[in-house]
Structures are given as structure tokens and as C-alpha cells.
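Might you be able to review the protein record set out just below?
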Amino acid sequence: MPKTQKRDNAYYEERLKNEHPAIYVDFRAGKYPTLMDALVAAGLRKHRTPLHEMINGWNKATPAQRAAFQTFLATAGITIPAGGSAAGGAHSIVVNDRLTPAAISQIKHIMSARRMKMGDVMRELGFTPLDPSVGMAMKRDTRLSHAVISSLEDWLSKNSGV
């Protein structure tokens, strides 16, 4: 199996030199203070914004770290509007197709109150009881398909009074 290519500064500087010689000359002359600025000007890279950093951090965080961050937001008086558009896209129970700690807690509460097993939940969602997707998402923070997310949102709203 071939070794993956290293994408370090030397790689990008070589690309800049070969693909955008005018910008490379300006970079070497000091018009661009950093290689990254020259790469952005050439269209080879994009600046990472604080939003990129927050999303990257959220994706790498454990469920406990995510819950702690949500607690921090709540104590700081920062609220996320219903629908979760600020953090989770169109779904309030997920962020990047992963269940939020609040959604996991709600599912566990409903299962306990109704004395259900995961297979019963999956059956009510319209899937085979042997489908492990929701259970894996709850225990191992795996991603859910959009079909499962949609069914789960409907199921949670139907069971909100439990």
C-alpha cells in the first residue's frame, strides 16, 4: 500500500511555486507575511475561523466534555434557539449527526418509564428491532442516518409527555 503524502509547509510552498509563481515571488519578497497568507491569496488554502475550531473541537470531544460545554453555555447565559441551528444544523437532538447528551437522557427516560428495550424503540421508529444504530449512538457516540434522526425526532415528540 502506498504511503500517504505529507501535506506540510514544504509541500504547499512547492505547490505555490509551481502553480502560482507570481504569488510565490511576492511571498519571497515579503508581500505576504506568512506562507498561509500567500496560500490563501492563491486559493490553495482557506483561513480557519474560530467557528472551524469550535466545530473541530466539538467533533473530538467526549459526551462528558460536550455536556460540560453545554453547562458552561447555560451558566454564561448563552442560549441556543429551538431547532438547534446554532450548533446542530436542522436537528435539535443531534450535532453533526450524533445524539446530544440531552437527547440521550430523554431517550433513556422514556425507555425507563415505558419499560422498553432498544429493540422496542427501533420497532416504534419503523426499523428492525435488530438495528443497533440508536443504541450505538447512545453508548459509543456514533453517527445516525438522517432517516433514523427524523424518525427519532418524531418519536421523542410523541413521547414528550412521558
Q: What stands out?
A: DSSP finds nine helices and two strands in the chain. The CA atoms of residues 35 and 110 lie 54 Å apart. The first helix runs from residue 9 to 19.
